[in-house]
Amino acid sequence: MTHSRKLAGEFLGTAFLLAIIIGSGIMGERLADGNVAMALMANTLATGAGLIALILTFAPISGAHFNPVVTLSEMWLGHIPRRLAAQYVAAQIAGAFAGVAAAHGMFGEAAFFASHHVRSGLPQWWSEFIATFGLLAVITSCSRNRPASTPFAVGAYITAAYWFTSSISFANPAVTLARAASDTFAGIRPQDAPGFIAAQLLGATAAAILFKWLFAPDKEVSLHGNQDLSQPGLRDIP
What's the pTM value of the predicted model, to 2 decimals? Predict the structure, then answer.
C-alpha cells in the first residue's frame, strides 16, 4: 500500500470518527430533551459501533490508527518509520477537524466554533491517563494474540470507558483538539485541551513501556544447549 493511500485512510477514518462523535452528540442532546444520561448513551453507542466499522474498513489500508498516541506507540515499537508516523499524525489531526466541520454542516451549525464545555481538574486528567493506558493495552494485547478481534475489543472498550471515566474517555489527542472546535455536547474548552493531551501522552507512554516488557521474548536454555525460544514480536496495531 502506498504512503499516499495510507494517509488518505487515516484522514478519512479519523474524519468519520469525529463526524460520528460530534453528530451523535448533537442528535442525542436534541432528542433527549434535557436528559443528559440519555444523550450520553446515544453518543456512547454510536461511537463504539462506528469505531468498530471504521477499523474494519480502514485497517487493510492504513492500519486504522485514527489516533496520534497509537501511531507514536507503533513508531516507538519500530513498526512504523518516524517520517511516516509524523505524516500519520498530521493526517489524523486534519481529518479530525474535517469530521467536525462535516458533522456541524449536517446539523446546520457553523463549521467551527470554540467550545465552552468545561472539562478540567485532576480527576478528569487522571481519567484520561487511565482511559488512554487502557486503550493502548487493549490494542497491543489483542493485535498480538487475537488480531481479528481487535476492532470489536476497541469498540467495546471505548463504549465502557465513556461511562467509567469522569472525562468520558477522549483518549486521543487529535479528537481532543478537534472537539475544542465544537461548542456542542461532545466539546471541550480550548484551554482545557492541553491538560487532556498531556494526560493522554503520559498514559500511552506508560502502556507502551509496560506492554513492551510484558510481551518481550523469553530466552531459555534447553537440555540440548542454548536455544532461543523467543516468542514472535508484537503484531502491527491495526
Answer: 0.89
